[in-house]
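Feature request, filed as a ticket because there's no other form

It would be nice if the structure record came with a short human-readable summary line next to the tokens. Right now we just get the raw output. Example of a typical job, pasted below so the devs can see what we mean:
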Amino acid sequence: MIKIEKPSSLLFIAFPAITMLLGWGLRGYIGGGPFGAMIPGAMVALSISILLNLQPTVASIFVVFGVVGIGLGGEMTYGQTLGLLRNPDTLWWGTLGTTVKGAVWGLLGGIILAVGLIYNRLSKRTIILAFLLLLVGMLLGFKLINQPMIIYFSDPLKPRSESWGALLVGAIALLIFFKYKIESAGFKIIYRFAFWGLIGGGLGFGLGGFWMVLGSNLPKEFIFQNWWKAMEFTFGLLLGAAFGYAAWCSRNEIEPEKVIRSSKIIPGPKPVIQELAVTLIVGLLIFWLLSSWLDPIVDAVPIVREFTWIGFPDFAKLLSNYAFYGLIMIVAVMRFPLVAWQIAITLTFCHTAMDLMSDIFQDSTINTPFSIRFALIFVMSLLVSLLIAIFERFKNSLHPLFLLLIWSTFIVAFLRLAYSSEILNVSGLSICALICDKFFVHIIFLLSAVYASWISFQIGKKQLRINMK
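Raw output as currently delivered:
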């Protein structure tokens, strides 16, 4: 058997770093929240899958866990926390807040990302119990830390409901559960991704926030103004690099041939219509049915600054949380494993299309069926879904699927730019102003997308040569 030479440690760091920089930038540009964070989650998981040369059926499950794990951190509010950085009196408290929230984001995201890598070593019962424990931990963390505002990183004069404590307690509960539930080799991978995720997330958000500090201390006429995007790019870069390094350290414990031998038996390809039907049901359940039912209940509950006993609004908040939506996606994939690519990529793209339609149809606030807004979202998502159905049947499917994810979300970002009425207003602007300010974000998008695509192509070409020997 020919031994596959793995990419260098530098590439293991740089490729996920640039890929997640792109994903995080797209997330902030197209739409935020946990569903927007699915973009960097899917991208970083796919880049790591390519570096590790994972079997496509194994990689598809891993990417779903990446979508769920990184998306979870999007439940945290941090706009007001970043606002604290602009005031010298609250600068260091705001920095502590961004560091804590970034660290929690990376910690929990790393745990769930790693679970996706060892998915084939775990029973379905273990995975479901872990997610239920996560939900319980989040509820306790919210009630004991965030609701009474024991440690509060937002504006107390304009209070917002925080959830970093909920995610932190949930992450700790998962670590304790896996420590005593799985074998030491598997837990070592989880711990490694959790540790480096904590470091990368804390540094990425903590240091990235200083771009906001710098911007607030420079003259308003300074040519560069995209300090928020600089923060997002820094966060994505360092968190992606941390996950890439964790994958490099785990490369010998995640040998593709070992993963394949230990994989659960997965049946042959299912009809495309079944893939589309399952994806449509999960998408409608998450994006429309549950949110339209639960969100009004949660929004009607006033913010309370002291501990209260657990009641119906708390359960409604828990069920409208992305952690519960993530559990739905995981259960769907466990029941229909060959729909994993559709869940991971189609649903990620679908929400970018929803955000684009929100910009175009600003008077419409709900993605109700039988509307032009819903129809356009459906058609765009269907096109991506059909391309996935074609690409996933390729022998070396990781690379075309990776390119599809990158360039489909990239196109949505540029469609959003084209829709803006400001796009042609370039009169009086110098070349430097166009590059450094007006189109700076889009130039970074383009360069990082080209880099990620080129690296994927180079790795794929090398792997193809080895497989032909």
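Something like this underneath would help us a lot:
Confidence is low (pLDDT under 50) at residues 257-266.
The CA atoms of residues 284 and 327 lie 15 Å apart.
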